C-alpha cells in the first residue's frame, strides 16, 4: 500500500504526478488522492487551488476525453455515460459532445467497416452481432442500422 499523504506539499506533489500522466476530472482526483489522504479538508483545499491555478479543469478534461474517445471509434451515448461516471455534470458533458461531435452516422459506418470489412452481413445472426457491437460502442440504433445496411455500397 502506498504511503499516506499527510502534508500539503506531499498532496500537491501527488496531484502533480497524476496530472503529469493525463488529464483527470476533479472527482477522479478526489477518489485517487482520497485513498491516500485522511484529511478531506486538506484534499479539498489543494484541489480548489489546482482549479484556481488552472492545473486541473473539468472542462478541459471533458474536451480531451471526448476527442480521444471519438477518435477511438466510440459513439456519443457511450462517451456521455463514461463522462457521467467520471463525475462530470450534464451541462459540461453536453457542451463537450457538441463541440467535439463528428457526424455520428459516418463514424458508425467507419467503425463498422474497420471491424467487419466491406462485406454485408451473411445472415441475421451476423447482422445482430454487428448491431450489438455498434450499439455497445455508443451509437444510436438508427445510426448502427444505417451503417450496417450501407456497408460495401459506398
Features:
154 residues, mainly alpha, 0% strand
Task: Explain how this protein is built.
The chain is mainly α. 70% of the residues lie in helices and 0% in strands. It contains 9 helices and no strands. The mean pLDDT is 92.
Explain briefly what this protein structure is.
With 154 residues, this protein is mainly α.
Q: Strand percentage, roughly?
A: under 5%
Q: What's the quaternary structure here?
A: single chain
- Helix content bin: over 70%
Provide a count of the helices. 9
Count of DSSP E strands? 0
The CA-CA distance between the termini, in Å, is 55 Å
Average pLDDT level: 92
Secondary structure layout:
Elements: H1 8-21, H2 26-34, H3 40-53, H4 58-71, H5 76-85, H6 90-100, H7 104-116, H8 124-136, H9 141-150
Amino acid at each position: 500500500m502506498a504511503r499516506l499523504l499527510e502534508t500539503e506539499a506531499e498532496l500537491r506533489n501527488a496531484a502533480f504526478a497524476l496530472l503529469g500522466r493525463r488529464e483527470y476530472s476533479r472527482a477522479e482526483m478526489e477518489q485517487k488522492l482520497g485513498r491516500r489522504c485522511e484529511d478531506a479538508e486538506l484534499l479539498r483545499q489543494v484541489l480548489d487551488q489546482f482549479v484556481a491555478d488552472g492545473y486541473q479543469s473539468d472542462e478541459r478534461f471533458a474536451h480531451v476525453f471526448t476527442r480521444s474517445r471519438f477518435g477511438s471509434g466510440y459513439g456519443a451515448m457511450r462517451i456521455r455515460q463514461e463522462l457521467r461516471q467520471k463525475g462530470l455534470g450534464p451541462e459540461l458533458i453536453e457542451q463537450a459532445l457538441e463541440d467535439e461531435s463528428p457526424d455520428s452516422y459516418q463514424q458508425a459506418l467507419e467503425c463498422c467497416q474497420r471491424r467487419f470489412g466491406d462485406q454485408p452481413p451473411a445472415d441475421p445472426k451476423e447482422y445482430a452481432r454487428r448491431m450489438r457491437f455498434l450499439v455497445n460502442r455508443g451509437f444510436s440504433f438508427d445510426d448502427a442500422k444505417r451503417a450496417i445496411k450501407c456497408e460495401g455500397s459506398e
